[in-house]
Amino acid sequence: MEENTKGFTPEDDDQEYYEADTRKSVRGYKIVICILAVILAALSILYYNINRQQQRDYELMKIDRDSIQSDLTNLIEEYDGLKYQNDTIAANLERANQMVEQLKRERRWNYNKLKEYEKEVGTLRTIMKTYLRQIDSLNHLNKKLIDENVGYRKEISSANLRAEMAEEKATELHNKVQQGAIVRARDIALVPLNKNGKAVTRVRMAVTLRVDFTLAANELATPGNRDIYVRITSPDGYLLSTEQTPSFEYEGGKLNYSVSREVDYQNEDLDVSIFYNGSGFTDGTYLIQIYGGGYLIGSTEVPLR
Predict the structure, then answer these.
(1) Are the beta carbons of 116 and 99 closer than 8 angstroms?
(2) Which one of 65, 106, 214, 290 is least enclosed by Cβ atoms within 10 Å?
(3) Residue 233 pLDDT > 90, yes or no?
(4) What is the CA radius of gyration of the chain?
(5) What is the reported pTM?
C-alpha cells in the first residue's frame, strides 16, 4: 500500500487538472477563431458581392444617364431645328437645356431620379413627335396649296393670255375700223389763178392757188361737219402760210397749215376746193398735203411752170 502511493502528491493532481482545462480553453478559442474566420470570409464575400453589384448598378446608372443626356441633346437639336417661333416650343427647349445642365452637375444618382429624367425625356419626345406630325401635316397642306396656287396661276395666266389676245384683236379690229372710217382725199390738183379768178398757165402770173380734191364716199365714217387743213410747200421747201401762221392738233403736237375749210360730209363723194391767196409764186414742183380728222388723208406733188 505504501508502494502505490509513493511519489504522488496533491500538487501533481492540480497540475493535471490545470493542463486539461488549458487544453479545453485552447480548443474553445480555436473553435471561436474558426467561426469568426468563417463569418469574416462570409462577410468579405458578401461585401465583395455588394460592392460588385453597386459597381454594376453605378455603371448601369451611368449608361442610363449618358443615354438620357444623349436623348436630351438630340431633342434640343430637333427643337432647335423648328424654324418658326412658338412659345411652347421655346419653353420645352429651355427645359431640355436645363435638364442637360442638371445631369452634368449631378453627383449622386439613384434609380428614382433617373426614372424621373427618363419620364420627362419621354414627355418631351412625345411633344416633339406631335410637333413633327403637325409640321408634316402643314408641309403637306402647304404643298397642296402651292400646287393649287400654281394651277390657279396657270389658269389665270391662260385667262390673261386669252384676254390679252382678245384685247389685241379688239384693238386691231378697232384700228382697222378707225382706218376704215378715214375719209380719203383723191384726185388732188393745184390750179394757179389770176386776180380775176381765171386759170393761168404760168404760175408767176397767179395771185391765188386753188387746191381741188374729192373726199371719197365712206359708209363707216361719221357724217357731219369736219375741218379740212391743207399744207402747200413751195419748190424751195417753204410752207406757204399767212402772217399768223395758223396750226392744228396733229399726233399730240401742233402742225402749221396754209389754208383750211369746214365741209359738210355725208358719206358720199364730196368735191372740195380751197383757195390760198399770195404772190411771188415760182416755177417748180409743189407738195400738197391734206389733213382731216387727225389723219393725213391725201398727198401729191404738182409741177407748175
Answers:
(1) no
(2) 106
(3) yes
(4) 63
(5) 0.47
Mean pLDDT of the chain: 77
Enumerate the domain spans of the chain: 26-155, 185-304
User: Which sign does the torsion angle of CA 128, 131, 137, 140 carry?
Assistant: negative
CB atoms within 10 A of CB 43: 10
Contacts of 100 (CB under 8 A, 6+ apart): 69, 72, 73, 76
- Name the fold adopted by 185-304: Immunoglobulin-like (2.60.40)
Side-chain half-sphere exposure of 104, counting CA atoms within 13 A = 9
Buried b (16+ CB within 10 A) or exposed e, 213-231: bbbbebeebeeeebebbbb
- The letter for the amino acid at 262 is E
Q: Which residue from 239, 217, 216, 215 is spatially nearest to 288, judged by alpha carbons?
A: 239
Q: What is the 3-state secondary structure (H, E, C) of 219-262?
A: CCCCCEEEEEEEEEECCCCCEECCCCCCEEEECCEEEECCEEEE
Per the listing, cell 384683236 goes with 169
